[in-house]
Amino acid sequence: xxxxxxxxxxxxxxxxxxxxxxxxxxxxxxxxxxxxxxxxxxxxxxxxxxxxxxxxxxxxxxxxxxxxxxxxxxxxxxxxxxxxxxxxxxxxxxxxxxxxxxxxxxxxxxxxxxxxxxxxxxxxxxxxxxxxxxxxxxxxxxxxxxxxxxxxxxxxxxxxxxxxxxxxxxxxxxxxxxxxxxxxxxxxxxxxxxxxxxxxxxxxxxxxxxxxxxxxxxxxxxxxxxxxxxxxxxxxxxxxxxxxxxxxxxxxxxxxxxxxxxxxxxxxxxxxxxxxxxxxxxxxxxxxxxxxxxxxxxxxxxxxxxxxxxxxxxxxxxxxxxxxxxxxxxxxxxxxxxxxxxxxxxxxxxxxxxxxxxxxxxxxxxxxxxxxxxxxxxxxxxxxxxxxxxxxxxxxxxxxxxxxxxxxxxxxxxxxxxxxxxxxxxxxxxxxxxxxxxxxxxxxxxxxxxxxxxxxxxxxxxxxxxxxxxxxxxxxxxxxxxxxxxxxxxxxxxxxxxxxxxxxxxxxxxxxxxxxxxxxxxxxxxxxxxxxxxxxxxxxxxxxxxxxxxxxxxxxxxxxxxxxxxxxxxxxxxxxxxxxxxxxxxxxxxxxxxxxxxxxxxxxxxxxxxxxxxxxxxxxxxxxxxxxxxxxxxxx
Length: 636
Fold this sequence. Notes:
The chain is of the alpha+beta class. It is built from 24 helices and 18 strands.
C-alpha cells in the first residue's frame, strides 16, 4: 500500500483512506476472525479474500517494515513474543485483508478510472511540487526512484487508492455529527474536575512483621505456580550477519577513493544563491522595468514591491541551480555576481529579470572526513552479497544431511551453544542471554521446535542475515523448593499484606473524609492532603495516578471515592470539589475537531459493516502456518 511513499509524502493517500480504512485494523479482524485455516494453497500464501491472495513475501516485507518503524520509534529491538502479544501481526494482516477485500470488490464491480484523471491527481499532488509551486517532473521521478518505485507501479497503486476512496465516499458521503453528540463529546474530552486527595502507601500501614514459617509455607503452597522455574532449552545457533562479516573486512584506500569519486555528489553541498525574479509578458516591459531599477533611488526589491510593477514576482529564496526549473533562468542566475541584476532573460514562462543576493559557495566533504563511513558502507554492501552466497551454500549442505554444527563448519561459519534459555530470552540467572543476535525473533521459534529436528532459518530484523538453530535438549518447567525462592516468596507475602491493609485503610479513610475535612483525615493516618484544581480525563497531574482517573470522573461533585494506584501497594482517597464543563463555540476550531472526529467514527462504523458484508459474500481465509512462519511462531 505504498507505505514508503506514504511516510515520505504524508498526504497523497488522502485523509479518508488513512483515517478511515487504516483506522479499521482492529475492526477488520473482529469482522474477519482468525479461525479458518485454509487448505489447497501452498505455503506461499498467508491469506485469501475471494480470488485475491496475500502472499508470504508481500506480508513478510510489510511486517518487517512495520517492525522496523516501531523499533525506530522505541529505540530498541522488539522481541517476537512481545510483538505477538501486542497483536502487531494480526493488526497488519487485518488491514491487508480489508484492503484486499476492497480490491476484490473493485474488480467485481468493474470499476476503473481514465488515465487522464490519474495524471491530474498526480500533477495536483503537493508532494510533487517544485520550488515554483507547480508539478515538478524531476521531483516526482526523484521521489519514486528513492523509494524504489517505477512510474507504472506508482500509477497502478494510485489508481487503486483513488478507487478505494471513491467506494468509501459513496458509502459514507458527507456524514455530519448531531449537536447532541458534539456536546457529549465536548463534555467527555474537556470536562475539568477539582479534587482533594490523600495518597496511601506502605508508610501508612505500619510495621509488617516477618511471616511465621507456617504462614510462609502456606502462602508458598497456595501460589507455587508463581515461583516455578520456567522451561529452558539448550540450543545451537549459527548466525550469518552482514554486519558481523563487514567488521572482519578490510577496505583499501584505493577502493574507497574509487567509490568516493563515483559517488562524489553525495558529499557535495552545491552552491546556493538567493534568487529573486520578476516574470514579464514581453521583453519590452522587462527592459522598461530594468531601466527603472537602475535609477539611484530604486532597487530590485523596491520595484518588486511597488504598485507599478507589471510582471509577476517570485522570490525563490536560497536555492541550488538544480531547483530552478527554467534552464535559461538557472544559467543566468548562476552567472551573476552577488548582489547584482540580470539583463532580460527569455525563459519558459516569459521574459525574466533576475536579482541575485547572497551566494553560498559549493562545499565538498574531503575524502579523509568520509573515509570511515564510506569504508563501512562498502564493507556492508560486500557483506550483503556474501550473506546471500553463504546462505545458499549452507542450505545446499543441509539437503545432504548432517548436524548443524557439521554443516556450519563446511561453509566457514561458527556454531554457538546456549546451554539454557527460556521463552523470554533469559538464562537461569534471570539475565538476558548475551549470545542471542540483536533483533532476531528467535525465542518463539526455538520453543516451537522439536529436539534434534531441522528448522527453517529465522531472518534478522533488518533483513541483513539469518540465524539457523537446532534444539539439543529441553529442561522442563519445575517447581522450585521454598528454600530456593524464600526471598522472593517473603517479598511477595509482604506486598500482599500491604495491599490487603491498604485496601481496608482506603475504605476507612473514605468514611473519615465523608465526616470531616481532607486535612483532618490525612493527619489521622500520618499522610498529607493534596489538591488539584483542573484535572482532565485524558491526563494526570503531579503524583496523582492515571489509573484513578476513571474513578474520579465517575464520582459526582462533593462525592468521595477511592481507587488503586499503579499497583496494589498504592491507593488514593479523594473528594471531588468542583466540576466544570467549558462551553463550546460551534464555530470554534475545537468544535470542528470534535465534529470531524465524530464524523470519522460514524464513517468507520459504516465501512466496518460494509467489510462485514464483503466477508460473507467473498469469504476470507487465513493460513495460520504460513503466518506463524513469517513471525517466528510455531506452525502447530
